[in-house]
Design brief:
Elements lengths: L2 H7 L3 H4 L8 E5 L3 H13 L3 E5 L2 H11 L3 E5 L7 H8 L10 E5 L4 H9 L4 E4 L4 H31 L11 H18 L3 E8 L2 H6 L4 H19 L6 E6 L2 E7 L3 H18 L14 E8 L10 H16 L4 E4 L14
Parallel strand pairs: 1-2, 1-3, 3-4, 4-5, 9-10
Antiparallel strand pairs: 6-8, 6-9, 7-8
Length: 343
């Protein structure tokens, strides 16, 4: 699956829609059964769903169980009043997205100030003015829905800003951010971080091939990106377009042997594609040069992962210098050594 499709699949359709498909759920907390009945009937006529609780403690339990779109709470109740209930609601998950409308018969400034200090979004007074209640409920729910839609849209935008438009892998911006995060995490956990850098062999000659051109080159890049993304599909790994015809794979909690396994899987899958490369002096098919490095961040290394990038880059250079269509690891080993890890 392309990265863009994966991003959008994380968000339910109704969350990205301009209007939700279900009626908003309002949690009504009031100890007076007559008041609850009147408010419930009124709001049901306005096409809201209503759940009821008789005091603040019941209201907290119902909130955790039902996750309502709005809370309508009386200020004065036994066991736990509306002010304390409102205060506790602010500590609950998604409290920022759930408006609280306080109902109070105490029509004085100190009670209003107390309601807002407890976290209430707005208030109405008893006896209830139904037109006022209708307008305030509608406004608060619309504002809450709009805020949630804007936040979801912003999350999608932020995700898309980290995606390479051509290959749908992570872009260089996301690569740099993720690599630094994982470097610091491996430093804390005293674990190893591996990095693979890949370069398409003779890609300029591929684009220059008769009848190929950049459109065919873009298609080649997309196919190789799919292979790289598939080879790096373990949770926590990140495949990225490093730049031009270069790609990278970040492998947390991975030693050099683990990086070699990923590189071998990648080469095997790419060879199986048999992407023609008539201008290549190395192979009739598209191939990759690969550099692999793994380090355990420690006090002797900088907090930035430049050392790891430099090591993987040196290994990549060695792979190119020794014939391409192979991988090399860092530290580099002499080609005459029996322990040679160059492929």
């Amino acid at each position: 699956m392309h990265r863009l499709s994966a991003i959008l699949s994380n968000y339910p359709n109704e969350a990205l829609s301009a209007r939700p498909h279900r009626s908003p759920l309002i949690l009504l907390i009031d100890d007076d059964p007559i008041t609850r009945m009147q408010i419930r009937r009124f709001l049901e006529l306005e096409n809201y769903q209503i759940a009821e609780a008789t005091n603040g403690k019941e209201g907290i339990d119902a909130y955790q169980r039902l996750h309502p779109d709005m809370v309508l709470v009386d200020g004065v109740m036994p066991i736990m009043d509306g002010f304390e209930c409102c205060t506790q609601l602010q500590t609950m998950p998604n409290a920022d997205h759930t408006p609280v409308l306080m109902i109070t018969g105490l029509d004085d400034q100190s009670s209003v100030d107390r309601a807002f200090a407890a976290g209430a979004t707005d208030y109405v007074t008893k006896p209830i003015h139904w037109a006022v209640l209708r307008q305030r409920v509608r406004r608060l729910i619309q504002q809450s829905q709009l805020l949630q839609q804007l936040e979801l849209a912003n999350q999608v935008f932020q995700e898309l800003a980290n995606v390479d438009g051509l290959t749908q892998l992570a872009n260089r911006r996301q690569f740099d951010h993720h690599l630094e995060q994982e470097w610091r995490r491996m430093f804390r956990e005293q674990s190893s971080l591996a990095l693979i850098l890949c370069d398409i062999d003779s890609f300029k000659l591929y684009n220059d091939a008769q009848g190929y051109g950049h459109q065919k080159g873009d298609d080649c890049l997309r196919q190789i990106a799919n292979v790289i993304g598939g080879a790096a599909n373990r949770s926590g790994n990140l495949a990225a377009r490093y730049g031009g015809e270069e790609f990278a794979i970040i492998l947390p909690n991975t030693l050099i042997d683990g990086g070699i396994k990923v590189a071998e899987k990648l080469r095997s899958r790419l060879h199986a594609l048999h992407l023609p490369h008539p201008n290549s002096a190395i192979s009739p098919w598209v191939t990759l040069s690969i550099g692999i490095a793994s380090m355990q961040p420690h006090q002797g290394l900088p907090l930035s992962p430049d050392a790891l990038i430099s090591a993987a880059d040196q290994a990549l250079y060695q792979a190119k210098a020794t014939g391409r269509d192979r991988y090399c690891t860092y530290p580099l080993v002499s080609a005459t050594s029996n322990t040679d890890v160059t492929r």
